[in-house]
Amino acid sequence: FFSVIFPLYLILIQGPCNKRVKPVDKSASVTGIITPMKTPALKRLGQSIQRSISFRTEARPLPPMPIRTRQKASSFPRRRNSQLWSDTVDSLSHELSTKEIKRQEVIYELTQGEKQLIEDLSLVKKVYYEPMLKLDIMTESELGQIFGTLDSLIPLHEDLLARLEGLRGAEKTVQEVGPTMMDWFPCLEAYITYCCNQVGAKALLDQKKQDRRVEHFLRLCQESSFSRKLDLWNFLDLPRSRLVKYPLLLKEIQKSTPPEHPDEEALPQAMELIQRIITEVNLKTGEAECQFYRRGLCYSEDSQRVSEIQASRFLYCHGELKSTKGQKLHVFLFELVLVLTRPMAQDREGPVQFQVYRQPLPAAHLHLEDLPDGEPSSSGSFRGAFTGNDKVKNCFRVSATGRSKSQSHCLQANDSFNKQQWISCLRQAMVQSRDRQAQSSHCKPSERLSPDPALYNNIAELNLNSDSRDRQAQSSHCKPSERLSPDPALYNNIAELNLNSDVEMPDT
Predict the structure, then answer these.
(1) 27 within a domain of the structure (yes/no)
(2) Cα end-to-end distance, the chain, whole Å
(3) Could you tell me if 302 and 275 lie in one domain?
(4) Among 97, 106, 245, 483, which one is most buried in terms of CB atoms within 10 A?
């Protein structure tokens, strides 16, 4: 039934294809196929500028995500055929400077990005939500958890699109865009609810993919032309990706805005406002993710329920690491404590759970040692993880002393990039926890340990999951906050990590 109904449904949506394909002469060379065309000077200039600001990178499977590994570039087509502002202008009554043309190109990119986002979100509802509900592939309650408040975001972006299109004058140029964005940005507080829901939504979607009917439906959709080879989660993550795009676009518009322009004062104010909103979304989604994983922890002993777990407000990172015996562990670095867990067998209908392994290690008492490749751990070799003459690689040791007996764990990441992310996050957690302890003891902390206010808003963005392969460019138990607005100061604190590997910035 499903295999018959779904193809028919796709035909109804896309309509029959009446295009004829003209065969190409086998003897024709590539240069013979491509006919040279004359490009007006204005269009050539616009194309050159557009390549330089290059904002189009639709939904790169983020994400959402846990400690990530370097991956080969995907061959999936993720870009639409795009049009430049200069392509829409037939002629100009007066000459525009190169700077003004660049400004108009970026404003046009902002407008087109809104239009494409609206199309994608509407497609998600029409092609995924409604068919899965009608075909009883998922219940209405399950779909409501996965799609969250997506419906409420479409009117917001339709409103902005209408405002931006209303700004275009007779010559298709826009004079002021700053006041419009300032007036509209407060609407984006609706993103707090949507992004906070994403952690649970991603976990439920991954769980439902174990159902053969769900997996088959989603695979058919991904293989269809309308999806551009993106899966459902990539589409659900588009709003979050769009949110972090606004500061970048406004910054580019500002660069091309001449002195004494009406936008000169409004644009910095708009950028400050959107950055505050993004910070708030980061903070709330970080808290939501922390709560989600705290609820999933299972304790074998009451002594494992340390106060630092409940007192933590966010996660620095989490992901899969191996123990000295080659055993897979899922490790959570909360704000105040490092928790090693063993993944539990998941019930299709039950919540995600993790069995706490050994005693949690308070970050304030942590000691970290970077182990050189080839050096054996203190507990012996990694049995089961290596064979023959393979050397131990990408390992580090964490230990703690204090309220309980000493503990030491030698852990192995799946590559050097993954290892450095863990080490950087662990160092940040140790510094911040000790600084917090010093302040609570009324000791004057050293400047080196003074907390960075931006850190708490941005560090939650580091959802470091070693499972990124399954996500195809990111996402899975992804930390919605990572995801949002990187602060340059954060990267300095985190040893210049490049953790923004695949996050889509729709059209970025």
Answers:
(1) no
(2) 41
(3) no
(4) 483
And the tokens for 198? 């994403």
Reported as a pLDDT band with limits 50, 70 and 90, residue 347 is low
Q: How is 460-486 classified by DSSP, letter by letter?
A: GG----TTHHHHTSS-SS--TTTTS--
Cα diameter, the chain: 82
**Residue found under tokens 């003459």:** 389
Domain that holds residue 234: 42-72+83-88+96-284
Percent of the chain with pLDDT over 70: 63
Tracing tokens 């080490």 back to the chain, one arrives at 423
Domain end position, chosen among 284, 309, 336: 284
Asked whether 103 and 256 are in contact (CB, 8 A), the reply is yes
CB of 493 closer than 8 Å to CB of 450: no
Alpha carbon of 147 to those of 8, 130, 237, 279, 296: distances in Å? 24, 11, 10, 23, 21
Provide the whole-model pTM: 0.67
CA distance readout (Å), 199 to 54, 195, 243, 354: 30, 8, 17, 16
Fill in the DSSP letter of residue 353: -
Instruction: State residue 88's pLDDT score.
Output: 66
